[in-house]
Specification:
By secondary structure, the protein is an alpha+beta fold. It contains five helices and 18 strands. The site of fe (ii) ion has 5 residues, from loops. Fe (ii) ion (FE2) binds next to loops.
Length: 329
């Protein structure tokens, strides 16, 4: 039985499903909580989102076209404008005879941090706040949206967890890391994020040196890791040089066991450095998590007794407690 797909509360939350640039070439198909949606760019530059099913004979609209913000169905050419209003039925002799059911039932869509966020129901949740978006000394780097064959619950749990670093991230920064995790003290961080602050001496191989702006073998990082319900995690990293690196780790349920993953980075580095080079180490770290998580099937048990937890899992334990509350389960 699906746990996430069938949960009505999740419909009222915001989920990132694509990047703004994915809409440049025409309509774009996404899947969220088991439902297919079409996204398109409207004339004022905002985003339209509706079920990916034409009200006429149910063709996917995402295989149609967009011209000047009008979405055209490929099957009989019906046209849909802002707000999903049907503005053209080519076969109709009398334009006044457009049935009310010909309009699309649009859902809420917002563009933030270069990402398209959807809320299928009545928005009660919020899009997580990243204050650095407003700070001119930081630049934002987007990285594309990937599909992971694992549950968002396992992804969020993993992104809150540091004890897997020396096991999973042996090819990147985890090699030299201590196995023992210092006691985690949970707190309310800034801007609605909840989590913990810690510092760590991390491996700094050659591939990491653009990212860390240091050529030492090991590098001190002052970090925070926090969550925003339902499935977003933010990591902040500060280096001795004053360089800051903020990572937004976004997991979106396509269904219970398949997910979109994207991450967004903000950095106060030298803006002339190739952005792709600045995030290539993060990409390599994410690839290590993906390999591990795709071995785990199903939704992570959300009840506290469903899996065994220890001190280093404290952030995940608290996140799951709040998630259960949100799900009303
Ligand atoms: S199915 Fe879309 S216009 Fe007929
Ligand atoms: Fe990881």
């Amino acid at each position: 039985m699906p746990i996430l797909v069938d949960n009505p509360k999740l419909n009222n939350e915001w989920f990132a499903v694509a990047e703004g640039i994915d809409l440049d070439e025409g309509p774009h198909a996404v899947r969220l909580l088991g439902q297919d949606y079409v996204l398109w760019r409207t004339p004022d530059g905002s985003v339209g989102a509706a079920p990916d099913r034409c009200p006429h004979r149910e063709s996917p609209l995402s295989i149609g076209t967009v011209s000047q913000g009008v979405l055209t169905c490929p099957y009989h050419g019906w046209e849909f404008a802002d707000g999903g209003t049907c503005v053209g039925i080519p076969s109709n002799q009398d334009a006044s005879r457009t049935p009310p059911a010909a309009n699309l039932q649009v859902i809420s869509a917002e563009e933030r941090y270069g990402l398209i966020w959807l809320c299928p129901g009545e928005p009660s949740g919020t899009i997580p706040e990243i204050a650095h978006e407003q700070d001119a000394s930081f630049r934002r780097i987007n990285t594309g949206v990937d599909v992971w064959k694992t549950s968002v619950t396992r992804m969020t749990d993993n992104f809150l967890d540091v004890s897997h670093f020396p096991w999973v991230h042996t090819g990147t920064f985890g090699r030299e890391q201590h196995l023992k995790v210092p006691k985690i003290k949970l707190e309310a961080l800034d801007n609605g994020w909840n989590g913990y602050a810690y510092d760590v001496l991390a491996g700094n191989p050659t591939e990491a040196q653009v990212s860390s702006d240091s050529d030492e073998d090991m590098v001190q990082r002052w970090m925070t890791t926090g969550f925003h319900l339902p499935f977003t995690v933010r990591s902040t990293i500060r280096y001795e040089s004053g360089l800051e690196h903020i990572l937004l780790l976004v997991s979106t349920p396509i269904d219970d066991e398949t997910s979109y993953f994207t991450f967004v980075v903000w950095r106060n580095d030298d803006f002339d450095t190739d952005p792709q080079e600045a995030i290539s180490f993060d990409r390599a770290i994410g690839a290590e998590d993906k390999v591990m998580l795709e071995q785990l099937s199903g939704v992570l048990p959300l009840t506290q007794t469903g899996v065994a937890s220890v001190q280093s899992d404290k952030a995940s334990v608290e996140w799951r407690r709040r998630l259960i509350e949100l799900l009303g389960a």
